[in-house]
Design brief:
mainly alpha, 0% strand, flat
């Protein structure tokens, strides 16, 4: 296993950087796709927030809250397509990916960490994330 890992380290990965120049029809379709994906993502987020505010937040028992989260019924792409007819003009795969992305983002969201960072920012402790170059420049300026 270790030998295999060492051989994988020696591999070189190559990438191509491409720029596309879509014609006007393609540009319109790309913009429609981005807009529809944004619509799906924001709609799912809105539905989850509504569910949280109306059902989860009033409940005090943590175990009961976990059980209630399992009962959430979010609208599908098909239901949203009936509500917003322009969603049918773009690829369904892009819309499905937007739905999966919203689910992943909601699962990965850590409320306690967000709350702590927000409180630190209120106190003026905003230096949670800084690029490495900024740290290097601060050290360089202190030394000179």
């Amino acid at each position: 296993m270790i030998k295999q890992l060492v051989t994988n380290v020696e591999k070189q990965h190559r990438a191509l950087k491409l720029r596309i120049y879509p014609n006007s029809e393609q540009e319109i379709l790309i913009n429609k796709t981005f807009g529809c994906c944004r619509q799906i993502y924001n709609n799912r987020l809105f539905e989850r927030n509504q569910f949280y505010e109306t059902v989860i937040k009033p409940e005090q028992d943590k175990k009961k809250q976990k059980e209630l989260w399992k009962t959430i019924k979010l609208s599908t792409e098909k239901e949203m397509g009936e509500k917003f007819p322009y969603l049918k003009e773009v690829s369904s795969q892009a819309l499905q990916q937007a739905r999966r992305d919203s689910e992943t983002a909601y699962k990965n969201f850590d409320y306690e960490n967000f709350k702590n960072n927000f409180e630190k920012e209120k106190l003026g402790l905003k230096e949670k994330y800084r690029p490495i170059l900024v740290n290097y420049l601060k050290l360089y300026l202190k030394d000179s």
